[in-house]
């Protein structure tokens, strides 16, 4: 599938070789052989090092020999083409600088027409990159004609690629050429293939940004309106995003007439995908249209989205509740939230769909800072409490993970009574991922609830996780202990957790015994030399006689791990003999790890 | 790794902990179509007399009235609402199905727009979001359409209508137009396999009866496939659409138009790259073979296309590709075979030496196919040198004894086919390997020199070389 290189190349290469003594070592044929190696992986490697090849050839031969070869061999595996497209975006210096950058256009043009989306996108990205390196003249002579060719290509791929190139050349060309570019973009917006219309719709906002305001009003608005009422919902939903960008460009007085009718229609589109998009972009939209339109239009639209018949849409809207409320105009913020938003939020708390509830739970706590202490206690607290009791663990988790917002406003004590049962239940959830998630919030909770509350209510949970039947939980529990000690200090550790951890060393289950070792690994550094030497080390030594080999080699690993915490005397007189004994163990793994520890601790 | 089995304590079981997690049984899900804000007040329909109870002259008028009544769409997620009316509509639809099947002279010109309207009101809707984000049609139960009790009858009615002897496409084409077809095609994404099955029949009938819509339908299917391959990788009805295309391709006139060839190369071949290939591979392979039976000259681009997209990491797909290739080789013309044999057998040689034994086995099965064997025999001077290295190496190295046995048979077959060449290859095997190693070393040296050069230059002219 690789084109043969013509016989004319060899003499040309040798003829030019004389100019630079370095180059004579690298006749192009040898290099090109590398680029068309039969093995795809080797070909790919060579393409990834294309800059090295170009460097060996020098700028002139890169332009006259390498690039034409690359342009002709565009038919290859997509992976190779992707690498090529990427390389060419960084090739300007290798072809002789901005003066010659247009030499890179032919291969990139071909790459911009291939079927595979990732290749095409990369080619467009590289073209956009090198467009900035073109002089205004080169842009008109070389770059813009390429865009035009792509825009009028037969197959949809080239037209799709063209959509991404208009905005980079538009600002730097003459007004006649500008008019042509606008015309081409218009044509693509009403292309026969939905793929092209989607590409155009997704670039509409970007293109609008580089256009003069008069053309935004005359051209872009009509394109936006047309795309937003396309027969395919996949096109309409892309127009929503463009609408947001366009709204930021227009003066306030034009918004109502030019974009609002279309956006209102999108918020009530019959396809849930379009409504979802509106919900998803709601905060951007809000910022773009300003406070007046927000009050009159967006508030009712947002209420509808929160009540949408599709859960997907409600969840997307629920995600935006906090941001939307935050960005409401200050003078009417509280009234709007209390009379319009909060009633919808209350309904969502008991939504039938767990994704909706969980989306809400991830932001609802943020409302307390906006509404202040009294409103929070009166209106939000009942909702938090309801969500803390939700049947879906995700919802409870999201509430717990955002406790810090409430803590600032009303203090966590208000919640602690309900918090505890929720935490206990999550701590014992049947799904280990849920247990894992709650463990991760423990240090944060401990900090907010204080050491007393923790010792009384939560400590036993933390210890229970150490004997969980899932390894990931035991591991997280170990790490959790370390973070707790960082918070509460070594003395607390010695009094509350170290005895319990060390007690497990006598457990009949070898996995529990190993957990002791893992805890020691995690705790020795935060607990410091004294506790480690006095309390932990003797236990570790004792375990070196365990019957289970897994425990014994973990002893070796632990000694290696805690070695740096110990003083050198202890290492020499106590640790060394134990490791030496383990190094002559009958189990090969125990031997291996003991020897490793000896060498790492330099005890040999 | 040491194991716990060396310890006597009986509490230490193999994993030390009992397994608590029990997988919950999956429940069947059903979902209603996304009828945006259709809910509201209860629907009231006034019962009408049965069609068979009125005179023949009155029937067309009553038929229209019943069609209009059936435009009312009910909410099936609410299992308690409108029970009586739902039942009434169901029985009316049943009556309409029977009526269009047996009656004569019912199909007045006024009936066409009403039929199409009733069908449109009922079937055209935005499909609901899929319940699971990553819906895997092989693993997950499909979400079934809740309104199926009505929907099924509407489809049934529409098909009988299209198949009715009185049906006149020349009148219907005013109503069954491009927009109608476009909406119909979108429904093929339905998760409910029952609905897709009906849609298949409907689209097939429309393609058959409306000549003016054929090119449009093909183009839109093109767009659906291209979007599926290059944008979303998600569309539930690919297999059904391919099945229809299979019969469409069958009817293509010769010589094939450029449009059709383009469809083969630019749409059908890339469809092989999709992750969910196994769900529609049989239908896809059928379409490909149909094309090749129409025009054998397409063999080369097709095989080159498959080789280009050959799976690199998915052995399951590789087996499917090999199966499809065998189907193609079954119908290949010897002149076409010669054009493609080199790249083809380079790939087969790679498959034969795949460490995945199913891939190796599937490839080696080619040697059980008499027609393929005859082609290989005719061209053994080209194929044997390509295959020899792999076969020779596997016969010594492959982990799976069944594969080694198969390879021995293949080597034996080659030996019988062309013993001179076989002996020659055996004797040069070692020196060839050495030559390859030497070449490999030269490559490494070349790159090392090139990299030294790069380093030297970048030191000389700081900043010019992009990193």
Automatic annotation (TrEMBL), chain A:
Keywords carried by this UniProt record: Repeat
Family annotation (InterPro entries): 2AA_helical (IPR055231), ARM-like (IPR011989), ARM-type_fold (IPR016024), HEAT (IPR000357), HEAT_type_2 (IPR021133), PP2A/SF3B1-like_HEAT (IPR054573), PP2A_Regulatory_Subunit_A (IPR051023)
Family, similarity comment: Belongs to the phosphatase 2A regulatory subunit A family.
Native species: Cyprinus carpio carpio
Ranges annotated as spanning the membrane: none
A Gene Ontology cellular-component term: protein phosphatase type 2A complex
Molecular function as annotated in GO: protein phosphatase regulator activity
UniProt domain Phosphatase PP2A regulatory subunit A/Splicing factor 3B subunit 1-like HEAT repeat: residue ranges: 291-372
Location of the Phosphatase 2A Regulatory Subunit A helical domain: 104-285
Name of the protein in question: Protein phosphatase 2, regulatory subunit A, beta a
HEAT repeats: 27-65, 181-219, 220-258, 259-297, 298-335, 341-379, 380-418, 419-457, 497-535, 536-574, 575-604
TrEMBL record, chain B:
Disordered: annotated segments: 1-39
Ranges of compositional bias, category Basic residues: 20-29
Gene that encodes the chain: LOC109088513
GO cellular component: cytosol; nucleus; protein phosphatase type 2A complex
Pfam families (UniProt xref): B56 (PF01603)
BP term (GO), one: signal transduction
This protein's name: Serine/threonine protein phosphatase 2A regulatory subunit
Skewed-composition ranges (Low complexity): 30-39
Molecular functions per Gene Ontology: protein phosphatase activator activity
Family to which this protein belongs: Belongs to the phosphatase 2A regulatory subunit B56 family.
